């Protein structure tokens, strides 16, 4: 079975329909179908998938990542803390969860993985993202990710 490379998946030919889909379709897949099929394993798989994608983007600068988030309409991104040891990223209007009635747990593992993978590629250091606040999961103002930067 031939793997589907990211570069291949990103070749989009939809001249009439365009390159965006409704948030509902994304959420149906991301929140409902994945959890139905994978159960609690869905979080780890989503994080891993996001991280792999983030790294494969081969970005060089944080600005490129912010531009990509804007283009993909992940949400409104802010980076209020950025030091050598610590980065904090806030996502407003998160594509995965903004507007949900809180379910008592963070939901945006794919976004966390994507941020971690992209920053890992940019810094050339191990990066792990922890979702410390979540709009739709926990009722917070933003989906906030603390990035733990290793060696
Ligand atoms: Zn969230």
Main beta sheet, described?
A: 4 strands, antiparallel
CATH topology: Muramoyl-pentapeptide Carboxypeptidase, domain 2
Order of helix and strand elements from N to C terminus: HHHHEEHEHE
Q: How far is the N terminus from the C terminus? A: 36 Å
SS element count, helices: 6
Helix content: 40-55%
Domains (count): 1
Features:
alpha+beta; 151 residues; 44% helix; Muramoyl-pentapeptide Carboxypeptidase, domain 2; binds zinc ion
SSE diagram, text form:
Layout: H1 6-9, H2 23-38, H3 41-56, H4 62-72, E1 76-82, E2 86-92, H5 109-123, E3 127-133, H6 135-138, E4 143-149
Antiparallel strand pairs: 1-2, 2-4, 3-4
Residues 94, 96-97, 106-108, 134-137, 143 line the site of zinc ion.
Short description:
The protein has 151 residues and is of the alpha+beta class. The chain contains six helices and four strands; from the N terminus they run H-H-H-H-E-E-H-E-H-E. The structure holds zinc ion (ZN).
Architecture overview:
This protein is α+β, with helices and mostly antiparallel strands and 151 residues long. It is 44% helix and 19% strand. It contains six helices and four strands. Helix 2 (23-38) packs across helix 3 and helix 3 packs parallel to helix 5. The model has no long low-confidence stretch (mean pLDDT 94). The structure holds zinc ion. Residues 94, 96-97, 106-108, 134-137, 143 line the site of zinc ion.
């Amino acid at each position: 079975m031939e793997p589907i490379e990211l570069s291949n998946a990103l070749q989009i030919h939809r001249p009439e329909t365009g390159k965006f889909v409704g948030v509902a379709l994304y959420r149906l897949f991301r929140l409902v179908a994945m959890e139905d099929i994978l159960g609690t394993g869905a979080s780890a798989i989503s994080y891993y998938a996001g991280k792999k994608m983030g790294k494969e983007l081969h970005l060089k600068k944080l600005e490129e990542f912010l531009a990509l988030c804007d283009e993909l309409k992940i949400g409104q991104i802010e980076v209020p803390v950025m030091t050598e040891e610590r980065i904090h990223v806030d996502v407003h209007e998160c594509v995965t969860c903004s507007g949900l009635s809180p379910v008592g747990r963070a939901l945006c593992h794919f976004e966390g993985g994507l941020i971690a993978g992209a920053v890992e590629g940019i810094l050339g250091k191990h990066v792990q993202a922890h979702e410390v606040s979540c709009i739709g999961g926990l009722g917070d103002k933003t989906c906030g990710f603390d990035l733990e930067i290793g060696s």
